[in-house]
């Protein structure tokens, strides 16, 4: 939407289209949290003296089979314009494919990694894709810890980092990035992992700032051109890598990558690169001001305000401050500000805010240097707890037959046998199910309640029993009917 200037008095206004900002992002992206990220980044630069070519950023983006069509030229006043796509986004959103990209501060990039929603590998999925790209599969098509470990190994094979010559890799707090096996591999191979604070990647991640936008615009044109060259056909996941080749070569270039590192202040290091106006949405969590009106001209009166103090761990507290307000006594020079026209929204909280427990605070996402020893220990403990939960769930869902074999000591199972005919006789067989050592000492015993010869003269044969099967000499089958354990 084009901004239109509007003049009111001596002030000049315009009407731009605002960017949609969620409440979580408004509260999470604040100056205190961002400053903590820059503190970690400064500590890494001072400790390791990492050059520009070894400062990397990695992030995923989706490349679905259905993209919004690009802008077209139409006749003036012609409001309804249609453009063919593979499917309607409302009903059929197409198939989502994940693409992982690594770029560094000098503008270089590694071949991308694609994650396809499949169970088995298929070389045709990356046919015609960017040179050297890697194709992985998962049922959901999303990045997992196992696939990210393979991607990190692919990244390490290109950068050749070591503990003596480490590289810095910045990424978000996705669960696949902070897996124990991933962090351990990075630690052993000289890859320093620094995570962004939650809800801050739109301003701190170079790929989101200056690379993925131009790439998606070029990808829309690539999809549109393919549909024009193949009328009546639909784009499948086998064409995704091929359609990404040209946009990747044209847009993932130094002209787009390097400005992203500069605008975020990652390289060159500049912690003041983000203006204070970018933190304005965080003001919705401020408390309303309590002011007292002046009784005379040019009187300085105290004003009580409650400010929200943001901590790096994501905990917000209220703090009362006193500040001096200069009240102008000249009514001839009125001033109008934007907040007078439309005040900023404020959170109304009448009851004291409950403090989070230490366990709840530790679960909150935050900026972390994952390869530091204290962080590795925390991740290792979490990995151990998750492994124990999985093992307990596996034992609970274990079949009953496996539970019997795994138990120690002796158990008896009585199998009641009945004939298929109407003849009035039955056979009971007692089987001793013991541990491996006990089985070598005990033998399977067969006891009959009645005589070995039935009423019609059929004699039972004590042959090797297969699945509890017993037959008479005349061929009648005796089958198991009831299984119960003692």
Describe this structure in words.
- The chain is an alpha+beta fold.
- Among the domains are: 21-70 and 90-280, 2-Layer Sandwich (Nucleotidyltransferase, domain 5), CATH 3.30.420.10; 409-485, no CATH class.
- The chain has helices at residues 23-28, 31-48, 145-159, 180-188, 201-204, 206-229, 240-251, 254-264, 338-341, 358-363, 373-396, 400-406, 436-439; strands at 6-8, 11-13, 55-62, 98-104, 113-116, 134-137, 167-171, 191-195, 300-310, 316-326, 411-419, 426-433, 445-447, 470-471, 477-485.
- A 6-stranded mixed sheet has the order 6-5-4-3-7-8, with helices on both faces. Strands 13-12-11-15-14 form a 5-stranded antiparallel sheet, with no helix packed on it.
- Helix 6 (206-229) crosses helix 7.
- The longest helix is centred in the middle third of the chain and has 24 residues, at 206-229.
């Amino acid at each position: 939407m084009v901004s239109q200037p509007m003049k009111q008095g001596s002030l000049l206004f315009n009407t731009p289209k605002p960017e949609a900002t969620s409440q979580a992002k408004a509260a999470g992206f604040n100056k205190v949290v961002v400053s903590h990220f820059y503190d970690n980044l400064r500590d890494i630069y001072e400790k390791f003296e990492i050059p520009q070519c070894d400062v990397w950023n990695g992030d995923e983006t989706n490349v679905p089979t259905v993209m919004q069509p690009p802008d077209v030229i139409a006749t003036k006043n012609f409001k309804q314009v249609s453009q063919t796509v593979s499917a309607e986004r409302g009903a059929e959103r197409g198939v989502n494919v994940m693409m992982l990209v690594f770029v560094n501060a000098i503008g270089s990039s590694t071949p991308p990694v694609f994650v396809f929603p499949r169970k088995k590998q298929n070389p045709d999925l990356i046919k015609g894709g960017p040179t050297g790209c890697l194709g992985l599969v998962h049922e959901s098509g999303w990045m997992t810890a196992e696939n990210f470990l393979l991607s990190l190994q692919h990244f390490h094979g290109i950068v050749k980092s070591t503990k003596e010559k480490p590289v810095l890799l910045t990424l978000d707090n996705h669960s696949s990035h902070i897996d124990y096996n991933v962090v351990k591999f990075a630690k052993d191979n000289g890859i320093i992992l620094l995570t962004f604070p939650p809800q801050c990647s739109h301003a701190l991640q170079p790929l989101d700032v200056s690379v993925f936008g131009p790439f998606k615009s070029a990808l829309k044109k690539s999809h549109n051109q393919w549909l024009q060259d193949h009328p009546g056909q639909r784009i499948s996941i086998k064409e995704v890598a091929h359609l990404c080749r040209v946009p990747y070569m044209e847009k993932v270039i130094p002209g787009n990558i390097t400005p992203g590192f500069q605008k975020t202040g990652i390289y060159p290091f500049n912690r003041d690169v983000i203006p204070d106006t970018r933190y304005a949405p965080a003001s919705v969590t401020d408390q309303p001001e309590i002011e007292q009106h002046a009784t005379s001209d040019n009187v300085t009166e105290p004003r009580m305000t409650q400010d929200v103090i943001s901590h790096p761990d994501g905990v917000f507290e209220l703090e009362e401050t006193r500040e001096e307000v200069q009240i102008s006594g000249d009514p001839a020079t009125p001033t109008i500000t934007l907040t007078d026209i439309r005040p900023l929204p404020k959170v109304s909280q009448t009851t004291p805010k409950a403090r989070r427990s230490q366990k709840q605070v530790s679960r909150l996402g935050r900026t972390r240097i994952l390869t530091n020893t204290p962080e590795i220990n925390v991740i290792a403990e979490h990995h151990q707890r998750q492994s124990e939960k999985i093992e307990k769930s596996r034992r609970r869902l274990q079949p009953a037959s496996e539970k019997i074999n795994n138990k120690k000591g002796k158990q008896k199972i009585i199998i009641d046998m009945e004939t298929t005919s109407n003849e009035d006789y039955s056979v009971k067989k007692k089987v001793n199910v013991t541990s491996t050592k006990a089985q070598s000492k005990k033998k399977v015993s067969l006891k009959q309640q009645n005589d070995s010869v039935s009423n019609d003269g059929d004699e039972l044969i004590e042959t090797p029993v297969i699945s509890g099967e017993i037959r008479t000499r005349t061929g009648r089958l005796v089958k198991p009917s009831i299984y119960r354990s003692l």
